[in-house]
Amino acid sequence: GIQVEQSPPDLILQEGANSTLRCNFSDSVNNLQWFHQNPWGQLINLFYIPSGTKQNGRLSATTVATERYSLLYISSSQTTDSGVYFCAVPRNIQGAQKLVFGQGTRLTINP
Amino acid sequence: DVKVTQSSRYLVKRTGEKVFLECVQDMDHENMFWYRQDPGLGLRLIYFSYDVKMKEKGDIPEGYSVSREKKERFSLILESASTNQTSMYLCASSFGFWEQFFGPGTRLTVL
């Protein structure tokens, strides 16, 4: 099956720093999602990005489907950005799509 | 906004008990999913449903069953809870092949 790898596994930064998280996938995909898992465990949708670039405030994401990777950029980090960031790609199953998740990047923003 | 709710944030049960985890979505999505999340193993699909009364096994269905009697509600059932089912359970829903939205999660501890 498809493999999804995220890097780095851990990232520790000071407040105000910028960061880039990477997601590589082993097969062609028709979409990709980025999530932030908050300290209470909920997965918050950040981006649904099959290709190209999207921006939402301090966050932006770029997916290059032909080269099988996606990047998540966080600028001017805040302590509330801390948590685990996951990318996930779909696999078609019986009229729906199962998400295959990477192992996540744990981001810690220190004040 | 899409809203997915789960019946409990935290649950403690004893070995052998029958456990029901409930998930409700308010966006008329036809697809609903149950995942579990474990350290080192990531998120894995247990079961999904693509229509009322329809269900399909995911990657790790053993020890679980599901019920979908109404479109908005998808229940995960542990017929006889065991300690290896202690985990974080996440419900999600989607419309067709579009992005999935997750509930807040249920942390289940089986003693």
Description:
The complex is a heterodimer of chains A (111) and B (111). By secondary structure, chain A is an all-beta fold. Helices cover 0% and strands 60% of the residues of chain A. Chain A contains no helices and eleven strands. Chain A has strands at residues 4-7, 10-14, 19-25, 33-37, 43-48, 52-56, 59-64, 69-74, 83-93, 96-101, 105-110. In chain A, strands 2, 4, 5, 9, 10 and 11 form a six-stranded mixed beta sheet that branches. Chain A is globular. With 111 residues, chain B is mainly beta. In chain B, 0% of the residues lie in helices and 58% in strands. In chain B, the strands form two sheets. In chain B, strands 2, 4, 5, 6, 9, 10 and 11 form a seven-stranded mixed beta sheet that branches. A four-stranded antiparallel beta sheet of chain B has the order 1-3-8-7, with no helix packed on it. Chain B is globular, with a radius of gyration of 13 Å.
Largest sheet of chain B, in brief, is: 7 strands, mixed
Low-confidence runs of chain B: none
Helix content of chain B: under 10%
Average pLDDT value of chain B?
94
Describe the sheet with the most strands of chain A: 6 strands, mixed
Cα-atom radius of gyration of chain B: 13 Å
Q: What is the H/E string of chain B?
A: EEEEEEEEEEE
Tally of individual helices of chain A: 0
Residues in helix, % of chain A = under 10%
Distance between the terminal alpha carbons of chain A, to the nearest Å? 41 Å
Choose one word for the global shape of chain B: globular
State the end-to-end CA separation of chain B. Answer: 37 Å
Strand content of chain A: over 45%
- SS-based class of chain A: mainly beta
